[in-house]
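Example 3.2
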Amino acid sequence: MVKKRNAPSGGFGAGSSSKMRKTANSPKFYAVRHGREPGVYSTYDECQAQTTGFPGAKFKSFPTREDAQAFVAGHENPSADKPKFYAVAVGHVPGIYHTWDEAQPQVTEVSGPKHKRFNTQEDAEDFIRQHASPETCRRLGLSLEKTQEYTGAAFEPVETSTRKVKAEPAPRPKAAPRATPRAEPNHEINGNVLRIWTDGSSLANGQAGSRAGLGVYFGPNDERNLAERLPGEPQTNQRAELMAILRALEIAPSTQDVEIVSDSQYSIKCVTQWGPGWEQNGWRTAAGGEVKNKDLLFYLGEDFGRWF
């Protein structure tokens, strides 16, 4: 179920010091795109000399030389053209996002979210290293630094999909008995059903050089818990979510009923709604296009007994 969510108060970087208003003495850079001699000038008089009486003159002032040079080069709004990196260290799916619309659902309705907007990928990654758990950093493919201070990021799945066609919210239990090794398939949890949490995420999802990772959680101190990089290409959120479910089913005893807890609506709907129809249609969408991630979906169909 999809809910509209409002941005948390304060937005990204809430709690940081507020920006000071610019004073009248702040330097300005005057960009002349169309004029007698296009370029960047330090005073309005210089700018005016290049534009007054020039047909179709185009000029604008900027607070930084970099933005002024970008305007001369043809960018209408240089600051808006710069990429933004929204780091979510504690949230539903930690990672780095490029728009607020992508990041907002990951921090809404989360207890103690940690998130901030940055101008560079490197700064965003450093923020996650500082505030996320080591497990989250490994899942995202981030090397752990010796100076990292773990602040208690939580793995917070919110919805489930099961082999019994079940998809509903299910909170993580505060405590659970240590899971038994695979060699003991009669181990029972929650009424003959083994509950497993899965998660996947991608840094710079959909961009060149993206890196994805996945995690599988059986319970506290369970030796089967894992966090690893997503193999193969492309390195996307959706493939990481699907691969996490596949890995969970590979590890779980084949004779054990399993409940997969996932926050991925895409994965849940693939298994419970879309998969059977796509397979019957030769792995083509209703519009005739090729289904993405069909290689992983095919094996999920096998693990779920050709769906339900």
